[in-house]
Design a protein that fits this description.
The structure is a homodimer. Chain A is α/β, with parallel strands linked by helices. Chain A folds into 2 domains: about 5-110, translation initiation factor eif-2b, domain 1 (Four Helix Bundle (Hemerythrin (Met), subunit A)), CATH 1.20.120; about 120-300, 3-Layer(aba) Sandwich (Rossmann fold). Chain A has helices at about 30-40, 45-60, 65-75, 80-90, 95-120, 145-150, 170-180, 190-200, 225-230; strands at about 5-10, 10-15, 25-30, 130, 155-160, 185, 205, 210, 215-220, 235-240, 245, 275, 280-285, 290-295, 295-300. In chain A, the strands form 3 sheets. A 7-stranded mixed β-sheet of chain A has the order 6-5-4-7-10-14-15, with helices on both faces. In chain A, strand 8 and strand 9 (about 215-220) form a beta hairpin. In chain A, helix 2 runs antiparallel to helix 3 (about 65-75) and helix 2 (about 45-60) runs antiparallel to helix 5. The radius of gyration of chain A is 18 Å and the shape is globular. The two termini of chain A are about 25 Å apart.
């Protein structure tokens, strides 16, 4: 089992995902600043996982909890899990922060397992599944979200989008599929629509970074295009996410802040001086989403908030 | 003006496009085999341009015209221009081959100019245009197809898909835009649908590798996804191509041979041992195409074959 975060001797060890798949190296984080930098630089990524990392980051804050909370929350804007986890641990009082961070971590693992269990029932044996980005153990505190469904289904073949510009599909998802011995083919992001037609894809499943009250879903750039193509081919399009990814304070997708990242991420192969437009996420309207696969079950619309839970 | 092919002293000089944008180096081709290899390895690419290169390749064949024709035609299967140009020069008799190759080259330049002239009328001043792959001077014998329209329009801003896996957008189109001082932003292929929405794209224009009698159009992988997204956003979707790209012998897109290229092209960032599915082209159904911009004008359906033209 891949462990992307390890709390050890009062420090947070973060598996540096920018070096995968070729090198497995842990960064040692001793301060909230170390953790915030690792989140900003995508050394740790995935909506649930950056929430967990940031919760541990607060446990490194000593007395400066408010400053650490502000710093960590500002590291990335789109995934709601980050701010929610930070606020939750910051509210429990200094002595219980680490316990609460570990609890968030364990809860996320349990939610991943539940998502896998519920979602696997939607997948016919032998299905051909298309996915994007990385939603597995490298993105969560457990076995993943969309990835958990793929992992729990029987006998599937996966087509994974390489997910430019940061290659989370090529670098991370293919690495996880290899470890789990799940048959997978990498495709160029532009090949997804043609692959749906040519390979008779049975379903598309993705993760999410923030889901508004009406079901509009922010996720990795490219997800919206997949949802449009899935609709054109009458292929079910599922979003898999723990209830911590739903943001009931936001009415619809227009209010979700979309992170624009450095142009250089896209300019890998371009001539010097070229410009780029680099939104890291897009918003898929709820009407294109067949169902949400959550830890509480499968819902055609976002499920109500869990009773008594602040997060 | 970029000159991707130069006939000089009985040899064909091919600008090696795999080295762009960083190095401008010419390959010297002395035999049809040299030219076929350059085509297979994408050192020269673009549907019209590989036709022209192959025509010059026949001029290098000496007496072995039939063998050279078979070799060159088999270099790449999807673009119809290749086989058509080879057959045309092979039919004129040994002494007139070079004259005929030069004529194809000049005709293509004239068709590009006409496409630009006709297409520019479709573009409102100040338009935001989205395109894919490379369709400019590096893809044709003149100023391009889709690119010619952009070049002839007034005051436009372009969003160019990077066009994985071979980066023709990032490496070649951005290089041409820089030379022509046309404002352009590179986007990840997955960002195209979101860009249509967020940047209020006015029109999409692409080239083509082969257009069937009913208008189904094979073009660079990713084009079909753009057409689906354009339709969802009610954005006009234009295909720009000379009449040499229309294949009236094929009823519809299902009969167009789609080249699958080496998995390694997609596996740039993937772990060792990973697999990929790498179709180089996809087929956009005619119903998603607003109009065809050809050297003979703008047509909602493929125009009839030019009178008296074999090619």
């Amino acid at each position: 089992m891949i462990r992307p975060l390890v709390w050890e001797k009062g420090r947070l060890l973060i598996l540096d995902q920018t070096l995968l798949p070729h090198r497995e190296r842990f960064l040692v984080c001793r301060t909230p600043d170390d953790v915030a930098r690792a989140i900003r630089e995508l050394r740790v990524r995935g909506a649930p996982l950056i929430g967990i990392a940031a919760a541990y980051g607060i446990a490194l804050a000593g007395d400066a909890i408010d400053r650490a909370a502000a710093l960590l929350i500002s590291a990335r804007p789109t995934a709601v899990n980050l701010a929610a986890a930070v606020r939750r641990v910051a509210a429990v009082g200094p002595r219980r922060i680490l316990v609460e961070a570990r609890r968030i971590h364990a809860e996320d693992a349990a939610m991943c397992a539940a998502i896998g269990r519920h979602g696997a029932k939607l997948v016919p044996p032998g299905a051909r599944i298309l996915t994007i980005c990385n939603t597995g153990a490298l993105a969560t505190g457990g076995i993943g979200t969309a990835y958990a469904i793929i992992k729990r289904a029987r006998n599937v073949t996966v087509y994974a989008c390489e997910t430019r510009p940061v290659w989370q599909g090529a670098r991370l998802t293919l690495y996880e599929f290899a470890k789990d011995r799940i048959p997978a083919y990498l495709i160029a992001d532009g090949a997804a629509a043609a692959t749906m037609r040519e390979k008779k894809i049975d379903l598309v499943v993705t993760g999410a970074d923030r889901i508004a009250r009406n079901g509009d879903t922010a996720n990795k750039i490219g997800t919206y295009a997949l949802a449009l193509a899935a609709r054109a081919h009458r292929i079910p399009f599922y979003v898999a996410a723990p209830r911590s990814t739903f943001d009931f304070s936001i009415a619809d997708g227009r209010r979700i802040p979309i992170e624009e990242r450095a142009e250089a991420e896209v300019l890998t192969a371009a001539p010097r001086g070229a410009r780029a437009y680099n939104p890291a996420f897009d918003v898929t309207p709820a009407r294109l989403i067949t169902a949400f696969v959550t830890d509480a079950g499968v819902f055609p619309k976002p499920p109500p908030p869990a009773a008594g839970k602040v997060r």
